[in-house]
Amino acid sequence: MQTLRVELGSRAYPIHIGRGLLGRADLLAQFITGSRTAVVSNTTVAPLYLEPLVAGLTACGLDVVRIILPDGETYKNWGTLNLIYDQLLAARCDRQTTIIALGGGVIGDLAGFAAASYQRGVPYLQVPTTLLAQVDSSVGGKTAINHPGGKNMIGAFYQPIAVVADVNTLATLPDRELRAGLAEVIKHGLLTDLEFFEWIEANIDQLLARDTEALTHAVHRSCAIKAQIVALDERETGTRALLNLGHTFGHAIETAMGYGVWLHGEAVAAGIAMAADLSRRLGILSEADLRRVISVLERAGLPVSAPAIALPRFIELISVDKKAAAGRVRFVLLEGLGSAIVRGDVPQDALVGTLGAAG
Questions:
Q1: Nearest to residue 135, comparing CAs of 107, 104, 110?
Q2: pLDDT for position 328
Q3: How many CB atoms lie under 10 A from the CB of residue 48?
Q4: pLDDT tens-digit map of 114-152
Q5: 201 Cβ contact partners less than 8 Å away, ≥ 6 residues apart
Q6: 194-208 and 287-299 helices cross at what angle (nearest 10)?
Q7: Residues 6-18: pLDDT tens digits?
Q8: Which residues 6+ apart lie within 8 Å of 131 measured at CB?
Q9: What gap in Å lies between CA 3 and CA 129, rounded to an integer?
């Protein structure tokens, strides 16, 4: 097991990464101060991992409430969030109840938002079971649900008390989900770490083959990069916006297509390719570096262009991006591999060129 920390003063917390960690309920139990916990999972993950986890927690003397939700991005909404509240209330869970999110990014976001708002806040633990959740969404305290007008538009910054990532769960991950997670791994390399990006280029086949050592390194390095950025800017007033590389375009794709049609990582991959293309159009990224970005995404089996979306609709959805400030959309762009910046002065003709080329 390897351990990192998200340094947020009195709210700092560990990220444990390793194999077989779901079999060690003591890792979770040490963070639970009350006598009850509510495990939130879904219909796909629960049959695989819920009961062994419950048995371990019960053996630690905890009373466990099971909350099983439907699976998929399409259920990341008010209705599903209310299912969590309904079951917490029915079980008479109080403020000493710790919520455990057992699943991918959707479960993590839903359970985290429920924890942030139930009785004005209860503690929660992230136990991510997908690559995308392990390398990105479980770390940093972003919780949210989707709205028809935009992805993740309703939510809260609310940090977990710990993250426990068992890389063994990646063995049961469908290939499409694994590839989607690699989009966020590639993103982290592009942001600040050229050496890591070059490692990804050299090891993409091992990652796709689910080599445990390679996956563990990818999760550890991605979490280290994200933890460092979150510690500097918890609420995304500056540096943390870099973590949204590819997301301005990607969220627009998800909203336009309907949540769940494209996986989040697939939309982010296309968004990264579009951000790189826009960077080249602005003269800050070389053609050679653009080709390397496109190549590694394609080798990962990810899309590098957007689906057909009407240009006015695409621009409309981009304009409601959460990074917008004073009516101007701020784009995360690449000055080079391993070097990202945020700019709010992108000319309309350059943006239209990228959107036209991608659609």
A1: 104
A2: 82
A3: 14
A4: 999 999 999 999 999 999 999 999 999 999 999 999 999
A5: 292, 295, 296
A6: 30
A7: 999 999 999 999 9
A8: 170, 173, 177, 178, 180, 181, 182, 184, 185, 215, 218, 219
A9: 17
Whole-number Å distance between alpha carbons of 56 and 2: 21
> In b/e form, how buried is each residue of 108-119, taking b as 16+ CB within 10 angstroms?
bbbbbbbbbbbe
Q: Where are the alpha helices (DSSP H) in the chain?
A: 25-29, 46-59, 78-90, 105-117, 131-132, 175-192, 194-208, 212-232, 247-257, 264-281, 287-299, 311-319, 348-358
pLDDT per position as a tens digit, 285-324: 999 999 999 999 999 999 999 999 999 999 999 988 766 6
Spell out the domains of the chain, with CATH numbers in brackets: 2-172 (3.40.50.1970), 175-358 (1.20.1090.10)
Active-site residues: which are they?
120, 142, 184, 226, 236, 240, 244, 247, 251, 264
pTM over 0.70: yes
Q: What is the mean pLDDT of the chain?
A: 95
Q: In whole angstroms, give the CA distance from residue 135 to residue 128.
A: 9
223 to each of 22, 38, 139, how far by Cα in Å?
19, 25, 7
